[in-house]
Specification:
Number of strands: 14
GO molecular function: mechanosensitive monoatomic ion channel activity
Keywords: Membrane, Transmembrane, Transmembrane helix
Shape: elongated
Radius of gyration: 40 Å
Subcellular location: Membrane
Low-confidence stretches: 14-25, 149-153
Pfam family, one: MS_channel_2nd
Main location: membrane
Strand order of the largest sheet: 10-9-8-7-11
Structural class: alpha+beta
Length: 578
């Protein structure tokens, strides 16, 4: 597949599926009310409506004069029933019945029934688009209690509830709580209404959270004509939004791959190609989300879920872009700012490379966790789980600690390695009798590349807790011994002179260690000689060691036709039998 068309195809498939799900749920195709205040701010409100205090309900002196007596088919006996009456009748466009779920007692006495129906329509649009109603947690008992004896830290056992919150929205840095209240009027049995304070804030909430302003200029036929029960102007607007988002994403892709890749700044040209795809996808989805939420404003039963899906896609794409940016930028620094890690004076380069490697993984991990947290926060169930975990932090910490002991131990060991620096990327080490280079240090393990191109995967806890050899910890220079076995009669000074001559004629000897040949052991059959050579790094020292060993053995073999080579001696009995 041509990579040039991969982003458009993937973007088209994802957005088309998401938009189809969202469009299919937009069942509200009637003309929406304007953002103008329904109730005049100069109208006097009713005072002193609350009667004598009662812990089980609010006593009212009068209730909903603008609506008259509540019809018998309207059920307001429980919190769930009151909200069902409001939502179901609003979906059926019977706002005259839905309005009976409202407590109008903080509105002016001059409010009309038509104005009340308009308020009901506004509140329904705000709830439908912005509030996730949790029907399972909404009590269906007249006293407002839940069926569970205990529910988290907010348990109310054996006591009626007279106020329940079913949503919360923010306006200008203050929270507006949407509540149901249990009220009692005269000799009637207590029943539930959407609180008077909530009703009083409907106009303010609708001005902020209502459908987009663009809907106000759409003619009636744009609302009444539908495609699959969707107002035709929203279908066309969604298509236009998709095209704009697609073109913007493609433009970002083109700029990063064609324009910025030729930048005079190396770090820009170096990372632009890797950022092109995630940047185009993130910008395209964010643009589509912004246009649909702020200008198209889908409503309906699944409108809030639809917006959540788009938000999750936006957060996911943005998180991917940030992770890719950090990864690309860190890789650029590793490639262009660390220098040669195999040189004689490479300690600073290896230390910088190790810090960048650890920092890259830590930052990517943190961005990933933050992105996942933002996504999960869109689901109320995960939020409640998080709150419960915090409430029982001690138990949760013990359980998580036991379950993830090995992983957490390796992660902590990785942080210790970054701070204490017992080993760094590029170091020559011997692990489990295997010699090699530290190729990478990850979150939980270290990779050692052996001389024969094998890879050893070493858990970081072992690096911290077990002994190993690091030949590059201070510097990479190394002294290596050459062991030879020769006959007792050999002149050691001749070997010493030859060794010195060989070293002085070698280009790899670093001249840090003077030529030295010593007799280190005498056995029953041979004499053991040890010659010492030094070089700038372990690999060079190894090659020099092998070269000198070979030449010294050849030299000893040439002395008097190999007379001084190590020999096996046998004792002969010359006694003749008679």
């Amino acid at each position: 597949m041509n990579k040039r068309f991969f982003l458009p195809q993937l973007f088209s498939i994802c957005i088309a599926l998401i938009s189809f799900e969202g469009l299919g749920q937009d069942t509200i195709n009637y003309e929406r009310p304007s953002r103008d205040s329904t109730i005049s701010s100069h109208s006097p409100s009713i005072k002193g409506n609350i009667g004598v205090y009662d812990e089980n309900y609010y006593k009212l002196r009068h209730v909903n004069r603008a609506l008259g007596e509540t019809p018998s088919e309207v059920n307001l006996q429980t919190p769930q029933a009151t909200l069902e009456n409001f939502i179901l009748n609003s979906r059926n466009k019977e706002f005259n019945k839905a309005a009976y779920s409202l407590n109008l007692n903080l509105l002016p006495s001059s409010v009309s029934k038509k104005q009340v129906e308009k308020l009901a329509r506004k509140l329904f649009m705000v709830i439908n688009q912005n509030i996730n109603l949790n029907w399972d947690e909404l009590s269906d008992r007249p006293d407002g209690q839940t069926d569970e004896a205990m529910q988290g830290n907010k348990a109310l056992i054996g006591k009626s509830r007279r106020s329940l919150e079913f949503g919360k929205l923010e306006i200008k840095d203050r929270d507006i709580s949407l509540r149901l209240q249990r009220v009692k009027y005269g000799n009637e049995s207590p029943y539930w209404l959407i609180s008077a304070n909530t009703v009083e804030n409907i106009d303010a909430l609708y001005a902020v959270y209502g459908p987009s302003n663009i809907g106000e200029i759409i003619p009636n036929w744009g609302w009444q004509s539908t495609i699959f029960e969707i107002p035709i102007w929203k279908a066309i607007g969604s298509l236009v939004s998709f095209i704009i988002s697609f073109l913007l994403g493609w433009l970002i892709l083109f700029l990063l791959r064609r324009v910025f890749s030729n930048s005079r700044h190396k770090w820009i040209s170096g990372i632009s190609f890797r950022l092109a795809f995630p940047a185009g996808l993130a910008v395209g989805i964010l643009c589509f989300y912004f246009l649909l939420v702020n200008y198209i404003s889908f409503n309906g039963f699944f409108a809030n879920s639809f917006h959540t899906i788009l938000l999750i896609a936006s957060v996911g794409a943005t998180t991917w872009f940030i992770m890719r940016f950090i990864d690309s930028f860190m890789r650029y620094l590793v490639k262009h700012r660390t220098g040669n890690i195999a040189g004689e004076n490479s300690l600073k380069s290896r230390r910088r490379l190790t810090h960048l490697s650890v920092a890259r993984r830590v930052f990517i991990f943190l961005i990933f966790v933050i992105g996942i947290a933002i996504i999960l926060s869109q689901f109320e169930s995960f939020v409640q789980v998080g709150i419960s975990l915090f409430a029982s932090a001690g138990v949760a910490t013990i359980i998580i600690g036991i379950a993830a002991q090995s992983t957490l131990g390796n992660i902590i060991a990785g942080i210790q390695i970054a701070v204490t620096k017992p080993v760094q990327i590029g170091d020559n080490v011997i692990m489990n009798d295997n010699w090699g280079y530290v190729e990478d240090i990850g979150f939980v393990y270290m990779i050692v590349r052996t001389w024969d191109q094998r890879r050893l995967v070493v858990p970081l806890k072992r690096v911290i807790s077990e002994t190993f050899e690091n030949w590059s910890m201070i510097n990479s220079r190394q002294v290596r011994p050459i062991y030879l076995y020769a006959d007792y009669r050999i002149e050691v000074q001749k070997v010493r002179d030859k060794f010195e001559d060989l070293l002085r004629n070698s280009n790899t000897w670093d001249k840090k260690k003077a030529p030295t040949v010593q007799v280190v052991e005498i056995t029953e059959k041979t004499m053991k000689l040890s010659a010492y050579c030094s070089a700038k790094d372990p690999l060079t020292a190894w090659d020099l060691q092998c070269e000198l060993r070979e030449k010294l053995i050849a030299y000893i073999g040439e002395l008097e036709d190999g007379l001084y080579l190590a020999k096996t001696r046998n004792t002969l009995d010359k006694t003749l039998e008679k």
